[in-house]
């Protein structure tokens, strides 16, 4: 009995590509230069400003702990100095003491309720703590006080985007751009929000504007390339953008990685391997680069090399489920079936609902270990998870046929065809059982004919239909089908023509 089975391939699409990076909020650090002159007669004021100015100088050189100490001394002398609270808040912010920073910004606002930058910085600190709604409230207050400040709109947009209000974020980025038409990060981030709303052309337009304003904006090239590749299949355009990003920053692994994926999409697997290798050279822990290099090696039939890369990915991330799955495929290609089963077992230990792992393990049980019962159990488990999986029905039909459960096999082939009416091999295998086991030659001919309606160049369907016609003593029809099969390269058909069609 001639059969066709389906061994599922590696899923390159399972790896996420380089993701857009939102620029961080702008922290407004107000200087204290205006406080450097003070009345000589006021001793307390002189001491307060000494501590204040020394704190400011410490902050400038990154000594934030020292700055906090001096701002605190200045505040002991003058507890109503809003600027000292504000600058101490910035120092705490830089030490990631966001709660302490919020407290200081709030104190500055108690003293001066119109302190716009204190609202902005308190909003930033709130966002850093995940309180994006609170941040939006602070940015809105800053805008109410000073509507012409683009940074407040920009930061409010970031907070809205963090809450997945991309439409609201776009509105705020647009307002920031209206105030400052050269606000490059606003264009860039607006592009990210447009992409999130599937406005891919609009996103590309914004990335292009960011590049026009700042030609060295590497991330804008990367994100624009990503959209060209993922959404428009413009792989050459994507590669051109990644090339520009690499020129700007040759030590950034991401554009090499993304370029490698674009090359794979163009079937330039050797080129993709070169790019993934460069990404790994820059970042030896780049787990997805090892994984995708393994996929590319598999595409070049270097299954040993692929296994090495999947293994390296698993060394970095022992829970990398797709690496186990693809390594299992590579091991099966090298006829290491026990190793393949071990990898599929790992996949299912991590995710018991991984349908393809059940199907591939079942295929090894059936085709290599002759464990058709075990194969049926795996296919049945796959169908329990996904009852619409035509391949699982098809493969289970083959396993049932091998156990001589022909009615069960026909039922599974029929189910596969109900799900996928163009499943040529299911028609062929169902026809084969009808012809050879159920002596339903007419039904078999109908199935082979349906297969040929879908695939008119299928040599096996012609050959098998010839057999069924022969079983009905239609030798003229049989010879016609065998001759067609022979013309399509079927060697068995050539012999049948020689023997029976003189």
What does this 3D model show about the protein?
The chain is mainly α and 502 residues long. 73% of the residues lie in helices and 0% in strands. The chain is built from 27 helices and no strands. It has helices at residues 43-60, 64-77, 82-94, 98-111, 116-128, 132-145, 150-162, 166-179, 184-196, 200-213, 218-232, 235-248, 253-265, 269-282, 287-299, 303-316, 321-333, 337-350, 355-367, 372-385, 390-402, 406-419, 424-436, 441-454, 459-471, 475-487, 491-500. The radius of gyration is 34 Å and the shape is elongated. 48% of the residues are buried. Mean pLDDT is 90; it is low at 1-42.
Number of helices: 27
Q: What gap, in angstroms, lies between the N and C termini?
A: 26 Å
Largest sheet: none
- What is the helix content? over 70%
Q: Say how many strands there are.
A: 0
SSE order, as H and E?
HHHHHHHHHHHHHHHHHHHHHHHHHHH
**Derived structural class:** mainly alpha
Low-confidence stretches: 1-42
Q: Please state the overall shape, judged from the principal axes of the Cα atoms.
A: elongated
Mean pLDDT: 90
Gyration radius over CA: 34 Å
As a percent range, the share of strand residues is under 5%
């Amino acid at each position: 009995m001639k059969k066709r089975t389906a061994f599922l391939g590696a899923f390159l699409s399972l790896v996420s590509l380089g993701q857009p990076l939102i620029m961080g909020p702008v922290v407004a650090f107000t200087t204290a230069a205006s406080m450097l002159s003070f009345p000589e007669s006021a001793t307390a004021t002189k001491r307060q400003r000494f501590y204040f100015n020394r704190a400011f100088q410490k902050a400038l050189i990154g000594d934030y702990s020292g700055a906090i100490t001096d701002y605190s001394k200045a505040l002991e002398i003058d507890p109503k100095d809003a600027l000292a609270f504000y600058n101490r808040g910035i120092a705490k912010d830089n030490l990631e003491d966001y709660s302490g920073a919020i407290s200081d910004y709030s104190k500055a606002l108690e003293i001066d309720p119109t302190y716009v930058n204190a609202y902005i910085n308190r909003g930033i600190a709130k966002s850093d703590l995940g309180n994006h709604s609170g941040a939006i409230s602070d940015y809105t207050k800053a805008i109410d006080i000073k509507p012409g400040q683009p940074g407040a709109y920009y930061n409010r947009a970031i907070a809205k985007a963090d809450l997945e209000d991309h439409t609201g974020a776009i509105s705020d980025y647009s307002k920031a751009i209206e105030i400052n038409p050269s606000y490059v990060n606003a264009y860039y981030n607006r592009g990210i929000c447009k992409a999130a709303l599937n406005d891919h052309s609009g996103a590309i337009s914004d990335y292009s504007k960011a590049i026009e304003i700042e030609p060295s904006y590497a991330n804008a090239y990367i994100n624009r390339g990503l959209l060209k590749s993922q959404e428009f299949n413009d792989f050459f355009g994507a590669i051109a953008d990644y090339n520009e990003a690499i020129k700007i920053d040759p030590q950034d692994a991401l554009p090499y990685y993304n370029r490698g994926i674009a090359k794979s999409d163009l079937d330039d697997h050797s080129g993709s391997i070169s790019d993934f290798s460069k990404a790994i050279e820059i970042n030896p822990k780049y787990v997805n680069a090892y994984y995708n290099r393994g996929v590319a090696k598999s595409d070049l039939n270097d299954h040993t090399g692929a296994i090495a890369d999947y293994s390296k990915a698993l060394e970095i991330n022992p829970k990398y489920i797709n690496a186990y799955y693809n390594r299992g495929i590579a091991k099966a290609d090298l006829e290491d079936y026990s190793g393949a089963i071990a990898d599929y077992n790992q996949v299912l230990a991590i995710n018991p609902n991984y349908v393809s792992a059940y199907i591939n393990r079942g295929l090894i049980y059936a085709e290599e270990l002759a464990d058709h019962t075990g194969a049926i159990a795996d296919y049945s488990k796959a169908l329990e998870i996904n009852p619409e999986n035509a391949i699982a029905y098809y493969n289970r039909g083959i396993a049932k046929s091998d156990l001589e459960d022909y009615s069960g096999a026909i039922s599974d082939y029929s189910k596969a065809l109900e799900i996928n009416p163009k499943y040529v091999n299911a028609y062929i295998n169902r026809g084969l059982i009808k012809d050879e086991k159920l002596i339903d030659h007419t039904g078999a001919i109908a199935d082979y004919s349906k297969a040929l309606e879908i695939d008119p160049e299928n040599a096996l369907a012609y050959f098998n239909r010839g057999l069924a016609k022969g079983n009905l003593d239609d030798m003229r029809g049989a010879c016609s089908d065998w001759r067609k099969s022979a013309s399509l390269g079927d060697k068995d058909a050539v012999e049948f023509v020689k023997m029976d069609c003189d």
